[in-house]
Design goal:
Layout: H1 7-21, E1 32-36, E2 43-47, E3 50-60, E4 66-67, E5 70-77, E6 80-87, E7 92-102, E8 105-114, E9 118-130, H2 135-138, E10 142-143, E11 149-153, E12 159-165, E13 170-174, E14 177-190, E15 193-204, E16 207-209, H3 213-217, E17 256-258, E18 261-263, E19 272-278, H4 280-284, H5 287-299, E20 304-308, H6 334-349, E21 353-357, E22 363-364, E23 384-385, H7 394-408, E24 425-429, H8 451-467, H9 472-475, H10 483-506, E25 512-513, E26 516-517, H11 526-529, E27 535-541, H12 556-561, E28 570-577, H13 588-599, E29 603-610, H14 630-644, E30 654-657, H15 661-666, H16 675-680, E31 685-688, E32 709-711, E33 725-727, E34 733-736, E35 741-745, E36 749-754, E37 760-762, E38 766-770, E39 775-781, E40 792-798, E41 801-803, E42 811-813, E43 817-823, E44 828-833, E45 839-841, E46 845-847, E47 850-856, E48 863-868
Parallel strand pairs: 1-16, 19-20, 19-29, 20-21, 21-24, 24-25, 26-27, 27-28, 28-29, 30-31, 30-32
Antiparallel strand pairs: 1-2, 2-3, 3-4, 3-9, 5-6, 6-7, 7-8, 8-15, 9-14, 10-11, 11-12, 12-15, 13-14, 17-18, 22-23, 33-34, 34-35, 35-36, 36-39, 37-38, 38-43, 39-40, 40-48, 41-42, 43-47, 44-45, 44-48, 46-47
Helix pairs in contact: 5-6, 7-10, 8-10, 13-14
Amino acid sequence: MVPLFRRPLIALLLLLSLSLALLPLRIWASDWVVSVDERSGLPTLLRGGSPAFIGALTFWEKNWGWTYTATELKVTAPYRYVLAGQNKSLDFDLHAQIQKVDAQKLTWNFALDARSAKSGVMGGGIVFRFDAALFQEMGQPVLLPDNSGWSWGTAQGRRIEMRFEPALASVYFEPGDKSEVRAFFYKNTIEPGLRKFTATLSVSGDVAIGPTTSERFGPTDPKSWPTDKLDWKTSPVDLSFLNAKEKPAGKRGFVKADGEQLRFADNTPARFWGTNLSAYTLFRTPDDAIKLQAKRLSALGFNLVRLHHHDSPWVFPNIFGDGNVTTDTQQLSPESLKKIDWWIKCLKDEGIYVWLDMHVERAVSANDNIFGFEEMPKNSKNTAGLKGYAYVNLTIQNAMKRFAESYLTHVNTFTGLAYKDDPAIAAILITNENDVTHHYGNALLPDKQVPKHNRVYMDAAAAFAKQHNLSTSQTWRAWEPGPSQLFLNDLEQRFNVDMIQHLRGLGVKVPIATTSSWGGNGLSSLPALTAGDVIDVHSYGGLGQIEKNPLFSDSIVNWIAAGQVAGKPLTVTEWNNEPFPTPDRHSLPLYIAGTASHQGWDALMQYAYSQESLGGEWMTADNWHAYNDPALLATLPAAALLYRRADVREATTTYVFAPTPGTLFNQFITPANAVLLRTAMEKGKLEIALPQTPELPWLQASVIPENAQVFHDPNQSLLVANASESTTDTGELKRNWKQGIYTINTPRTQAATGWIGGESISLANVDIQVNTANASVVVQSLDDSPVGRSQDLLISLGTRAIPQDDGKPPFYVEPLAGTLTIQAPQGLTLFTHGAPGQMKNLPVTYLDGRYTIKLDGLQASNWLFLKKNATQAKTSPSPANTASISEPATQ
């Protein structure tokens, strides 16, 4: 029953949804699309899915003190929006009516209402940031006369203009930076009262105006969707058979690195699909729930778990105990260790391996006797992080070694094995997201007020420069390519080698990763990582990964592939999308798993299964809690199954980027600016061959695989200039970025994900026709037979899932509407799971060797099963407009 007060709202939203459903979502042929950003309410220009320019509301008080402007955008009709904002610091409200005037024009009618006078402030308005890499093609932005706005492009071709009426208080380039234009509504003073401006964005050439994200997905009232019925204690599917032969974990002996592969001691290939257990999950989950979750993790298809944020100061308790009581990080808490022991024991029993970090965010105090502690930046508790400083501070290195010894030689209460001696421990990470080649080298520079650390750093840089006849003044400049990258790699490598020798001296037998390639690291950060047995990568994407045009735009998988050094196994201890909740996140596990299998990556760990206590007493919905997220869980088991079984075959072609030392170290090469790195992996396997470098005698030249195609120019594309899709060399993966559709077509896994609504997609044994705009549909055999001969099929369905208003589960789940046709043997029953342990039969027809399943768009069920000899469930009659009882399948 719909409450009376909600009926008009739902009717309005229904009309809006119907009208927006008629929007031509992919009418533009251009890669250049302007739309209104739903977070800022301002224009954003994307080229092939990558930002060409973005706008941000930015205001400053005195002395450039940044102030926060809260904003909310609402869609009122197709291409019509209302923006409301408030800046409490400067005491004004902001409103805007936004609309698309025609195919080439958007307007903003701004109204700023100041309640009080402000003097001596810097002011502010809209800051536009342009991608300087496009200046060669587009030219630099040009300011219009009389503070009236800016333009970008050429009058004869592609051009964007932003014009304000009346003239603004100021429009200028950020000094020395033509990639940032500041358009100020207020400057120096804010007078009380109302000020109005009209902003008109005009486009020409091949630039299109597109809808917002909400318009593309179809606005609706999520509260009209059914809520999920996920039970945090049980799994919606049972893939534990994948681990059955591996119980207990470690039975095949220690994991080892063998060329580009991970293997067990018995030479069986090791292929890991994992996740992260972090922070409060480790120490506050009750013991009985730990055992339960280990079984659930196995049922979901995981065989590797990383224990993370065990030492972070914001976790109470952490591995050192209660941070409100402990005064140093010299001792490990027996109670906390016992929790880690129990996690390892329970995971091991379920055939799940464990990845251990030696350092994540440990913060030292004055009582830890750290050299130079007084100059290190402190938090509110007067403790300091180690990142960056560890590379030049022997007392920090010794503290890290003492921790590693205490942690790894600790004997597990329940297994009787020290962690270092337990073959269920798959790998070790020395330090998390902590490099000097790109991130933390800057923390040691002369202007950072850390003279003791800087002195060690500068002395080391000078010695390196002298030894290799380099410019001393260039060698210490951590933010620049060139000699500094040689020095920083050497500094980091020496630390890595010392730490690895210590760990091996303790008796560690498994592969060791040094730190990760993460957060924008370029290829010049890779050499230092080769000191480890594996190269580890972290990669986070965002909305629309499947739509990223590799000719222009980098995606989450490109950043992972850029870490595949020839001859080394590749692990990924963190992957995810953000910010939460990205509406298409159901696609991500399939895209990651399909790509990983094709590229031959060795271990993938989603971040994260949970960071909160898994006791059921307190549950939240956010990006770090996949365990209760129906959008991610919809396809995570399907991804586990296809990856672990290698349903997607590894590439038959290998493309190797082999830079010279000059290319590698003298320029900043990343997937964002190197089209070769993006386009090569659309077809075959991508590897990076590191060169022998005189200044780094420890860096061995990578061994390039036989028959590999070798490239030296990062700007060489392997796709034609007007490409709109790609198919891998095996023919099993296809991605159309113009349509935003990704398909997997193998004998045992057949899937389509992305903007599949309104499309007719035919795979080997599956036909998909759905009305829901953005969705995932996966059909897989569970009995290892090809789909067309299988008598035990899993059907995974992914759509949007939005948490309740209070940010807690259950989620509202968008129902999937459409038709699914599957070629399979006769005599199978279609069902889904209701309450834990219960089965609900569903209607299905069988004709000419194919099952037809009607998805009514009213019921939310992420997992269906088509199985022979399924036990018939007792079901109660359903409402007239939904059918949930079926006769046995008949021809």
